[in-house]
Automatic annotation (TrEMBL):
Matches recorded under InterPro entries: Cyt_P450, Cyt_P450_B, Cyt_P450_sf
Keyword list, A-Z: Heme, Iron, Metal-binding, Monooxygenase, Oxidoreductase
Protein name (database record): Cytochrome P450
Lineage of the species this protein comes from: Bacteria, Bacillati, Actinomycetota, Actinomycetes, Pseudonocardiales
Superkingdom of this protein's organism: Bacteria
Iron listed as a keyword: yes
Entries under Gene3D superfamilies matching the protein: Cytochrome P450
């Protein structure tokens, strides 16, 4: 095991408070130790743009790594977490490249820019309703919990074909937050909370999958379970895919939306540029993804020994791909620590990842971002933060997300 043969790390990636500003450390790692084993995270850490992109495209870097944390537990605990392992292994067929390709063929055509553009009226209506309700209540508006999270979850529920009057949004949001614990460090308590969320979400989705199976569904549930479906999924497998969409299709987008507003507060000159010319929104979206995207790191497991920059990553080792470091690589982005919405190369970010497991919903995320930022910047042009400091919490090693973002919609 690497942790038994590699000396203690000089780069403590779990240092308290590091997630608030990790980039000085990551710049040093990128320069001096671009392939670094961190015993505190029990993983190799890649920080250079080229290495991260290559690993994302390399079939030797397997997309399913989470099971290692389960397999390290005593047999009795492994059995307790059997539903968790089954569900996340089934997500998008990602444990089997051939099954993943079948999933992509069936799904990608529903996420093309043209198909996604047809969802604009739905996204606009959801945002208009949420913002209108928040403003009608008077006082401060919480961008995170009043707007970003319910908007993103509402969009996903619509895509799945869940009848709006039957969606328990509070349950969906709470369960998804629990499931996202799987994307953290994978400690036993996190795994159990994740499984509890999956089971709660699965119980909600099951009757809707059954309705789709009987020809009474719509949306992606009908695509996966309807009578004419090209996918040969069992009901349990369809539920697993539904759970996946409600997590990866919601959580990251919601965080991006909230992070983006905070970035505009932190950089008033860039906010002024954007408010003066909303045609810059697509470029601003990419710069938000590059500068502070919602996913800081992702994990892979290598299937065979991989030599890289004078080191050897052994078969079975975990590799942490530092997307946030790749997106600040000065070899690719000039002045990478500057937030500039007019940056011409921002689109080269790896925030959606690249390769066979890249985010197929990125066109939808862009649409949500365009609608969200346009609505807030036009209806609340003078909005200002209500609290003196952002309410950050750690998410994954090196990452952060906002628990709340309270604003005065009319300014102070």
């Amino acid at each position: 095991m690497p942790s038994a043969t590699v000396p203690g790390s000089r780069y403590d990636l779990l240092r308290p408070g590091l997630y608030l500003d990790p980039h000085a450390l990551l710049h040093e790692m990128r320069e001096r130790a671009p392939v670094h084993f961190g015993p505190e995270v029990d993983a190799w850490v890649l920080t250079r743009y080229d290495d991260v992109g290559a690993a994302l495209r390399d079939p030797r870097f397997h997309a399913v790594e989470e099971h290692k944390k389960v397999e390290a537990l005593p047999a009795e605990r492994q059995q307790e977490l059997a539903p968790l392992r089954r569900i996340f292994t089934e997500w998008g067929g990602r444990d089997d490249p051939a099954a993943h390709e079948v999933f992509l063929r069936a799904m990608k055509k529903h996420f093309t820019p043209r198909r996604v553009s047809e969802q604009r009226p739905v996204v606009e209506a959801l945002m208009d309703g949420l913002l209108g309700a928040a403003l009608a209540r008077g006082g401060v508006v919480d961008v995170v919990n009043d707007l970003a999270h319910p908007l993103s979850m509402g969009v996903v529920c619509h895509l799945l074909g869940l009848p709006r009057d039957e969606v328990d949004l509070e349950l969906m949001l709470e369960a998804s937050q629990s499931i996202s614990q799987l994307l953290e460090m994978g400690e036993p308590d996190q795994l159990h909370r994740s499984q509890d969320g999956m089971l709660a979400m699965g119980e909600f989705l099951a009757p809707h999958v059954d309705a789709a199976r009987r020809g009474r569904g719509s949306g992606l549930l009908e695509v996966m379970a309807g009578p004419g479906s090209a996918l040969r999924y069992s009901d349990a497998e369809v539920v697993s895919q539904g759970i996946m969409f409600t997590v990866v299709g919601y959580h990251t987008t919601a965080n991006l939306l909230a992070n983006g507003i905070q970035l505009l507060f932190d950089h008033p000159d860039q906010r002024a540029l954007l408010q003066a010319d909303l045609s810059l929104l697509p470029a601003a979206f990419d710069e938000m993804m590059r500068f502070h995207g919602p996913v800081s790191t992702i994990r892979r497991m290598v299937l065979e020994d991989v030599p890289l920059r004078g080191r050897v990553i052994r078969r079975g080792d975990t590799v942490m791909l530092a997307l946030l470091a790749a997106n600040r690589d000065p070899a690719v982005f000039s002045d990478p620590d500057e937030f500039r919405i007019g940056r011409r190369d921002a689109h080269r970010h790896v925030g959606f990842t690249v390769g066979p497991y890249s985010c197929m919903g990125q066109a939808l995320a862009r649409l949500e971002g365009e609608v969200f930022f346009r609505a807030l910047l036009t209806r609340c042009p003078h909005m200002a933060p209500a609290d003196p400091t952002p309410d950050w919490t750690v998410f994954r090693p090196l990452g952060r997300e906002l628990r709340t973002l309270r604003v005065h919609p009319g300014g102070r």
